[in-house]
Amino acid sequence: EAILGVSADVADANKKAVQSAGSDPFDRLHAVVKASFSPPGFMPDKVAVWVALVGSARWSPQLASIYKDLWRGYRVGIAKLIKKAAEERSVKLDHNLAALAFSQLMEGFWVGWAADPVSVSKVHAEQAMHLFVDSLFLDAGQKRK
């Protein structure tokens, strides 16, 4: 129940952030990043519940199923935003792979912050996620020099 409560809080915050960001999917992705490092989802107890799920999923089929279902839905939504943003900017990328990277990077920052909030500060984690989103949509000629 705690896991479902946390994921509902995060999903609700993301939904509100996306709706208030306007229609540009690029802006909506950045809104998800901001919401992901803000209350009501990003709070010590709630992050700890998510980290507990991540750490326990391997050993519990029930928790593994919950984790897969929650994360699958999240990645699908992120993939749709990435695909739309890429189309609007005429950038070719694998939106599903980019969504996987986005979601795992986000989760990694949550886990890192829970373990060591000094080294993995909220501010730096959020900045890194914004940088990741920006880098997805750079002109291909700018990516590798």
Q: Unreliable segments (pLDDT under 50, ≥5 consecutive)?
A: 140-145
Query: Count the strands?
Result: 0
Number of helices: 7
C-alpha termini separation: 49 Å
- Give me the Rg, rounded: 15 Å
Which class do the helix and strand fractions yield? Answer: mainly alpha
Helix percent band: over 70%
Helix-strand layout with pairing:
Blueprint (H helix, E strand, L loop, with lengths): L1 H19 L4 H12 L7 H13 L4 H28 L6 H21 L6 H15 L3 H4 L2
Tell me what you see in this structure.
The chain has 145 residues and is an all-alpha fold. Helix content is 77%, strand content 0%. It is built from 7 helices and no strands. The chain has helices at 2-20, 25-36, 44-56, 61-88, 95-115, 122-136, 140-143. The longest helix has 28 residues, at 61-88. The radius of gyration is 15 Å and the shape is globular.
Question: Can I get a quick summary?
Answer:
This protein has seven helices and no strands. With 145 residues, it is mainly alpha-helical.
For this entry, give a set of tags:
145 residues; mainly alpha; 7 helices; 77% helix; globular; disordered C terminus
